[in-house]
Specification:
The complex is a heterodimer of chains A (116) and B (117). Helix content of chain A is 0%, strand content 51%. Chain A has 116 residues and is mostly beta strands. In chain A, a hairpin with a 2-residue loop joins strand 7 and strand 8. The chains are: A mainly beta (116), B mainly beta (117). Chains A and B meet through strand 5 and strand 6 of A and strand 5, strand 9 and strand 10 of B.
Amino acid sequence: AQKVTQAQTEISVVEKEDVTLDCVYETRDTTYYLFWYKQPPSGELVFLIRRNSFDEQNEISGRYSWNFQKSTSSFNFTITASQVVDSAVYFCALWGPTGGGNKLTFGTGTQLKVEL
Amino acid sequence: GAVVSQHPSWVICKSGTSVKIECRSLDFQATTMFWYRQFPKQSLMLMATSNEGSKATYEQGVEKDKFLINHASLTLSTLTVTSAHPEDSSFYICSARVSWGSNQPQHFGDGTRLSIL
């Protein structure tokens, strides 16, 4: 069975602070993919990143960075110098061939509130 | 690229009405589309997987006769909530994935907020 855990239900930070959103996953697959999505208050889900299980290089995209640690089954997401526009719910998700094939397994999401 | 359009954004209707929601992939072909339901402050719950030209695959506990799915083309899937009741009120969101890879990202529509009075 596949599982994604986002232990942080809600995080509040002040603008310009750095914030890390945690994601821990469980899977029996050796090949799998991890995703992060952003859901702003308007509701749509915005794809942020896809990472395959064989690529443990950290990735940086502007103020966003992702740390993939296979040894601890974690795929954490850091926002540097947070802004009010970063306020949203962030979902971590997992895809693996034995997880129903087509399905994404989502975590429960982390609500990020960035205040002035 | 990878734009998914969902229509309508909001629906308010009387109990007993059937409501149709459309999901279109605008710039890519999607053999597979997904329908999710999301309750306030909760994660996405997969309702069904929609496959072009074949019957949808429903998740356990989802009523097939209640939530009718049609995927008639590579760019369009529809979800019809039949004889909707207040308990069907929710946020429904679709996603689509490019045809050539099941491990590719799903791209989501903007969602439909359904309110049944």
